[in-house]
DNA sequence: CTACATATACTCAATCGGAGCATATGGCAA
DNA sequence: TTGCCATATGCTCCGATTGAGTATATGTAG
């Protein structure tokens, strides 16, 4: 078959169609660079954390960012190889599980002020890693993801920042008359706010992390919006800083990562990437709760996990739990071969 | 806040770390171009179809491809705008719903033989459109997606091509001694084949379209593998062509699109993007079955769709159904505001 | 007018999922 | 040493969901 094709040129049959310049020399595509960005997540002491590196070049204050670097196809055969190489270089960390999230290309959401850079297309990745030996950082810091998204932290009930700061301003923004033409299918701002933030009887959906961040960005309520020069950001004078900002579009990528992880944990056994080799069921539950929010029924969680065949007992127990010793379990890889979509199928019920 | 940052340069605090060349001028990133590719899906006469354009430049035989074009940030503010513009230019079609699928960057899976192109990173999109006025094509053809993936067509029961051609060869490939070092976590080829193709008691998972295609590619059993010069492809001499090939990595993108659509239809009301404004419940069911495979219980499907609040009756009926007239329904957009994840939650039971 | 084909309504049993009660067992303090 | 405490673990109960089947309604074609 390799002999069959030879001189074929990529060209679609059409008279006046532009030839696939797509595949032409690069001069025509000036200024496109591909950035690889990794949101590397772990759970340490029941706290979900993400690996950040600091930009200390600016005296006006350091800003956290994700490990990142350009994709250079001459050096790396695949995108993922490039990503791993950048992360290793910047932090010393090698991770196991990785998954692509999304490719962002919006003009204006990547540049930092004063920069005259070419257009950047950023590909975001989610990586998971577990504590334990061989996971030491050379550079960078683990930081709680709620540091960047305080309104996502429901571990002590509904976060105060929602009613104190966010909701009133979003309501004001939603009610503001829109000068420009409404979009073709008018999803009213009010409705978006309502659905994203679970107002007026709607339920809070813990998976909508990205939607919420994007809404806040659009409303000009996060620092990145003013940094990018979004018009909506100019309306606010008394607005407090909502969560810590990140460089470039990294907070958006992190929001995507959290959304994805919160969704995927329910139908794929990804939690185990965050666990040590052996663990008790309660430790497993704590890890799930760190990611989703703490509203799981202990006995049912056990039943769920055991009956799904996700784990098997090692035969040993862990004492010093403060009560009766707990059996130790390990992940059963074989579930992948047995069930179509094994995961911690918990319902996001509210506490 | 816009005043706060000014001369900040993207630089991560580290002595010997490469400065984020990521954001440097393009000379260092020679040869990276971004291709935007659209898998545009519709359902016509209960057949799932995809929009393809033909490459007729080569006398040795025309090959179907997806509408595609390069992303040029100077012309298009976002990736999606660029995509819509290319599709419109190449086919005359404007579509509504669109969603990004994945970004592929593997070296060697995009080039066509004889080509000397720079490295391409392709971003795949899934777009959905419904029949009806204003949807006429100027160029391109609608083609059944089973034309490219005959082994995915379970509408008449288990497709013969599986046992006749595919499974024996995959078993042979799996049993073949692997010369190079096994991967760190040895997921045996046998197991992959078993899980992907539902052998030895494992269930066929209709969402694993991409995994199956990738396995066939790896085993050298699809034409693209030989075109790309994959070594595994040289082993086969008597192997028939498994499904129609596509240009570049377009069949991979289409496989991703089918996988995504089959998964998403279950938890998001995306079917309605494929339906006309008014429809009967059976028409809706037929559309779902065209996508997932025909194994739905009619009465339960009705109950499901109605009780989920996905549709509402228009009050009218459609006669000439061949029997009792059927009520007409329309999509209830409000579900989006009411339920966290509304979709046609059907189980993939086998017929 | 009647047979037919499809639409629609209703029933029943099995299963699942949420919630709580009951029991087991090591640690620790009186 | 004993008994309390905290946590682990086992089990029950009930309502909601779901798979599958039966029964009824109402057009069209002959």
Account of the protein in words:
Two copies of one chain form a homodimer. With 351 residues, chain A is α+β, with helices and mostly antiparallel strands. Chain A has nine helices and nine strands. Chain A has helices at residues 79-91, 160-175, 189-197, 209-218, 223-227, 250-264, 281-292, 298-307, 335-338, and strands spanning 32-44, 47-55, 63-65, 68-70, 97-104, 119-128, 141-144, 311-318, 326-331. The N and C termini of chain A lie far apart (61 Å). Mean pLDDT of chain A is 84; it is low at 1-29. Chains A and B meet through β1, β2, β4, α1 and β5 of A and β1, β2, β4, α1 and β5 of B.
Search tags:
alpha+beta, globular, 351 residues, DNA-binding, two-stranded antiparallel sheet, 7-stranded mixed β-sheet, homodimer
Write the layout of secondary structure elements.
The structure is a homodimer of 351-residue chains.
Chain A: E1 32-44, E2 47-55, E3 63-65, E4 68-70, H1 79-91, E5 97-104, E6 119-128, E7 141-144, H2 160-175, H3 189-197, H4 209-218, H5 223-227, H6 250-264, H7 281-292, H8 298-307, E8 311-318, E9 326-331, H9 335-338
Parallel strand pairs in A: 1-6
Antiparallel strand pairs in A: 1-2, 1-4, 2-3, 2-7, 5-6, 8-9
Chain B binds a DNA duplex (30 and 30 nucleotides) through α8.
What is the straight-line distance between the termini of chain A?
61 Å
Biggest sheet features of chain A = 7 strands, mixed
Q: Mean pLDDT of chain A, as a whole number?
A: 84
Number of E-type strands of chain A: 9
Q: Evaluate the radius of gyration of chain A.
A: 23 Å
Question: What is the gist of this entry?
Answer:
Chain A has 351 residues and is of the alpha+beta class.
